[in-house]
Amino acid sequence: RITSRHRNYKGDYLDVPSRPHLLKILQKQGDKQVLFVDNVMKFTGSGKMKSRIVLITEFAIYIVDHEMDSLKRWISLAAVDKICLSELSDHFFATVDN
Hints:
Layout: H1 2-5, H2 20-29, E1 34-43, E2 49-57, E3 60-65, E4 70-76, E5 80-85, E6 93-97
Antiparallel strand pairs: 1-2, 2-3, 3-4, 5-6
GO cellular component, one term: myosin complex
Protein name: Myosin_TH1 domain-containing protein
InterPro entries: Myosin_TH1
């Protein structure tokens, strides 16, 4: 998609300050500065897709279930070699672990 290739990334696509459950998760973990947050699609072990929120801070990646407003996974950035975000408007991303 032509509009996806030249997308300007702004960082906070979900307006974290207006979402108390995300602020609570960050506060509980001691994180403050959000570098990136958006809706993404997660593939389950059975091949199904589930909608999640990915939140990246200076120290960690948070995977949040937006239906339950709960933290599903916390990944230290020290354990991640790189993060790849799809250039298409499909909400896919991948982490490459050390």
